[in-house]
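BUG: 3D viewer hangs when loading the predicted structure for this chain

Environment: internal workstation, default settings.
Expected: structure renders.
Actual: progress bar stalls at 90%.

Input used:
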Amino acid sequence: MKQVEPTSMASIPMQHVGPLKLTGPLGDFEVLVPLATYESPLWPSVRRGARVTARAGGIHVTVQGDGMTRSVLIVAPDAAGAFALLQFVEQQRPELERAAADTSRFARLQDVHGEAVGHLVWLRFEFATGDASGHNMATRASEALLNWILEQRSECSYGSISGNYCCDKKVSAVNGILGRGKRVVAEARIPRELVERYLHTTPEKIVELNYRKNWMGSVLAGGVRSANAHFANMLLGFYLATGQDAANVVEGSQGFTLAEVDQGGGLLFSVTLPNLIMGSVGSGKGLPFVEENLRALGCKDERAAGENARRLAGICAATVLCGELSLLAAQTNPGELMAAHLRLERAAD
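Structure tokens produced before the viewer hung:
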């Protein structure tokens, strides 16, 4: 199929904010982060979070998991046949790994989860995809696995190349539990004096608000494995600036904000994002401004193939932490949030 070229380009305001200071397994470095958004208060908010965390020693980032998923749907003759198929798939793992590897020099089958409802079987394949986000790579590999399974199990038939157990661009429990894309945790320890000076609040107030708003409020609202204030804001700005599929913000915004008062009276603050879907190569990365942003972030290093996307996800998680911390701090003070939006977004009446 011939690639469809855009007929015009949408222009979205973008600023580089920071610098963010990162530490941990990804390395110790500082970086300015590009955010493309129409919500102009996001820039100073993330900048404030970056300033206070840098003075506190930086944000420690850990990439805990990395794998793109695609689920296929297979129709078995009956419930017994569905159970037999699940057992067959478990036994044939080496053959499935070989079949997946034949589709790409980067695709590697990492895990398989199966579910059956009556005579219908869903197989959720998880693949390593190198520096690509892996949507197409995972689909191509899954199609090869599906075809191989149907060749071996002639009593079964094709259901769909995507059975919604992936789960792509939708809020789901399965992604929160098993992860999709990169699972990243970013955390910072901020001394009390820095919280008071730069965030104009206290660790106790942030901890209390996080519990009441993000955790209790999310439970009352029926949130699905999610307790955060506004992960989606930072994710969308980061995704658009770095050439990601912005619809993945749906599952990407699932995640948790944790706030505690540490033994020294300071603030221990972290964000956990189990579904960061992003890559440093692939669709959307050929635009000049995207290439420039990725290079500035240190995510186009040919000597670090396979690690560029992990670095990108780590920077993204640190950005989310900065914006989440700043917003919660603002919301501990009556009137601060609205005053900031009026000052930065609205023209004088």
